[in-house]
User: What shape does this take?
Amino acid sequence: MKIFLTGASGFVGNKLMDFLINQGHEVIGHVHTHQHQNNHLGRKYSPINLLNHNELVDELNDVDTVIHCAALVSTWSKPETFYQNNVLLTKTLLDSAKQAGVQQLIFLSCASVVMREQQVLLNISESLPLSHQDELPYTKSKALAEALVLDAASEHFKTIALRPAFIWGQGDIIDRQIGQSAKNGKFGWFSQGDYLYSTCYIENLYVAVSRALTSDLFGEAFFITDGEPISFRSFMSERLRIGGFPIPSLSIPTHFAWSLARFTENGWKYLPLKGFPPITREIVRLTGMPFTLSIEKAQQQLDYQPVFSVLQGLKHLASKG
Assistant: This one.
């Protein structure tokens, strides 16, 4: 199968590209610059402008499936920046893929598209409505993009949205950001981190993508997790330990963190402050409250079954050194 993969330079896209090539697929990975243009180990890259409809149509002319991983993954940016990178780009990709005759598009959405403010969400299903809250700008943009993907579905253009929970693995956001924050004393727990939480090991995401590639379903969204949830603090502590990072002891109540985040956001919004606020409501919402998902729909309709439980995944990751 010939696959066009967006976001090939990111954590998920980079790992997924290797997996797909090893599965025997021909993969063209999109990157923003020419820095990855050395086509090694069977890798092929395209640096085209994903917002240019005509360039995309030409690139996708003989592609079977598009896997859309590219996104602005951030908890702070201007609304118009989120819209351009996560919503408008998705719309352009959908329109171009349909015109080029692509048969299938798999969208890497995220589980947070159903999150509400300070609301406990346990064992939720895909029936929960999408979130469109301004205080969760990344979540809102991904929800808008997912809606476009599912609305574009037809028998001739099969679109599926995969909603992985917190994705982790070698080179993940813990290695890149959270661990470094822990080293600098800038990472702590919300309410001691003592709540259930769903996660998705990158190896399990491979399984979900494989199932989606061979599925005849369209217009459907699926939660993807490691199966049984785990205490957020237990998971994050072990993941930090495996990465060689310190485990924090600092904790603040979630309700206080939410109020503090709102205050901090206002400072960055109305004052000429540089960089990013140290805490936002989206950070608190994404990692500071109970959040577990049912994968019953994915199991029944996609034949998805996680290969690794959370504990097995942690052992697997640790064995890689």
Observations:
- The chain has eleven helices and 15 strands.
- The CA atoms of residues 64 and 102 lie 5 Å apart.
